[in-house]
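Deliverable D4.2, example record:
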Amino acid sequence: MTKGRAPDLSVSAVDWVMIVDQVIVWMQSASAADRCRAAELLARSFLVSELDDDDREGLEAALTVLLDDPEPEIRRVLAETLCDSDRVPHHLILTLAEGRSDIAAIVLNRSPVLMEAELVDFVASGDEIVQTAIASRQWLSPAPAAALAEVGTLAAAVVLAGNVTASVPPFSLARLAERLGHEAALREALFARAHLPADVRQTLMRQVAGALANLVVERDWLSADRSAEATAEAADKATAIMAASVGAEERPAFAEFLRRTGQLTTTLLLRAVTFGDIHFLGEALALLSGMPRVRVEALLAEGREASCRALFLKAGIPERTFPAFAAALEVQRELAAEVGFAGGDEYRFGRRAIERALSRCRQAGTADLDDLMVLLRRFATEAARDQARVLVSKLMRRQPLALPPPARGDDVAAAA
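Output generated by the structure prediction step:
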């Protein structure tokens, strides 16, 4: 071989042992660009050529030596050429993955050679480039996804949330919302997923509510106490609406999440039942009382006061609130039997249920119920306003409001 002349790697049949020896000698004096081209040819030959054991061993050795070349573009070429194959020796891919982040990202994103446990380790030790590469892997398995949810940067978390092929466990989605739900980019990526568990949606909603409360206080629009009160009321209302929207298969997990996070309160249950959400009330009472859900639902449907009172007490619901719950359950049974009542009219149901509950509390006539009366009257105000908005929206769809054309400047001057 003439000194400085590259070995011929394009022939169909070559003695690879001899070629590898020539390449190693030649690369000592070749330019970086020539070494890159040779590296790519060797890597492609390793993937597509029919090789016996000696030839494969020689080519593998040459590729291994190339990993030590001072020119980083050679490692990039090797990474891009070898990353999609499952026939590449593990040590080649692992060495590339342990190198410079931008080159490591190529194999971490695509190589099928890497084990799940290795990906978890790279998530834990890698920077944002490495984590983002793993987060965008096709069909990412649950373990590295969970690791990213736990320690990943915001950029990696957003990519993971948007990766529809990744197997992200529900608890990891919840962890993402808990850690980074205050970031708008992550909330947007999570809400774009086809199915987001109710507990994750509720956590994100709480994060948004907290951010808005802080903004209100910072701008001095409300005092800190009033802002906290308004935020809590809005979050409770949103949670009750969310509880009514979850399917039967998801309801137990959502109720348990609310119990675990201290949100399954008497106020929340009273709000839910006054808007007709008997299913969630039954789920919550079964969870709090330890009784079978089927039995709880049967007791609520029968409506016997003594049995229902005992159920609520066993669930830890304050006895003084029972009249309000009993009144809402009565209205629910009455409307269910009423001819022409359209199911899902929660505003009509809510106003009637709250009025009945208020009437019961007035009949009791004790100061012990004053705070409950205040709460119910607040619910009544919300129900009236919500119903008015719904009615106006329906009217607007039937008859769009005709607004006068905007006044021209000369008309305004004339009127003045």
